[in-house]
Amino acid sequence: MPQMLDSDIKYLPGVGPKRAELLNKELGISTFRDLLYYFPFRYVDRSRFYSVREIDSSSAYIQLRGRITRIDKVGQARSQRLVARFTDGTGSIDLVFFKGIKWMEEKLQIGPEYVVFGKPSVFGQSWNLVHPEVDLATEERLSQLGVMMGVYSSTEKLHAAGITNKFFEKMIGTLLDKVLGTLEETLPAWIRDQKHLAPLDFALQNIHFPGSVQDLSRAQRRLKFEELFYLQLSLLRQKSIRMRADSGVVFRRIGDYFNKTYEALPFPLTGAQKRVLKEIRSDVGSGKQMNRLLQGDVGSGKTLVAVLAAMMALDNGFQACVMAPTEVLANQHYHSMLKFLAPSGARVELLTGNTKAKEREAIHAGLRDGSVQILVGTHALIEDTVQFRNLALAVIDEQHRFGVEQRAKLWSKSAVAPHVLVMTATPIPRTLAMTLYGDLDVSVLDELPPGRKPVETVHWTENRRGDLYNFMRQQIALGRQVFVVYPLIKESEKMDYKNLEEGYLHITEAFPAPQYVTAVVHGKQKAENKAYDMDLFAKGRAHILVATSVIEVGVDVPNASVMVIESAERFGLSQLHQLRGRVGRGAEKSYCILMTGYKLSNESKQRIELMCATNDGFELAEADLKMRGPGDFEGTRQSGLAFDLHIADLAKDSPALVEARELGEKILADDPLLERIENRLLVEQLRTLRLDTTVKDYSKIS
Ligand code: ADP
Ligand code: MG
Question: Does residue 514 have a cis peptide bond before it, meaning omega lies within 30 degrees of 0?
Answer without folding.
Answer: yes
